[in-house]
Design brief:
With 77 residues, this protein is mainly beta. The protein is 8% helix and 18% strand. Strands 1-2 form a two-stranded antiparallel sheet.
Length: 77
């Protein structure tokens, strides 16, 4: 059985993102997730902001803290 700890509060930080192809910057507020195992960006956000995406050779299956598969599915870009 999995138990999920509820945070006492959310921690938001100001982050600057830079596009590799043209060094154009985007400033955003991001939720700090200390349980994340890498850096991820929502696909809709990436498209709206004009980030170039390349299809991954090996999709990454994402699981939630409780072990269930993330509703958004695998990370493919």
């Amino acid at each position: 059985m999995w138990h999920t700890l509820q945070p006492l509060r959310e921690v938001w930080i100001k982050v600057g993102l830079e596009k590799l192809e043209n060094h154009e910057g985007v400033a955003v507020k991001a939720l700090l997730d200390s349980g994340a195992m890498g850096l991820f960006m929502d696909m809709t956000f990436a498209k709206e902001k004009g980030f170039k995406m390349e299809k991954s050779k090996k999709p990454l299956l994402v699981r939630n803290v409780d072990g269930t598969v993330n509703a958004e599915g695998a990370i493919i870009h």
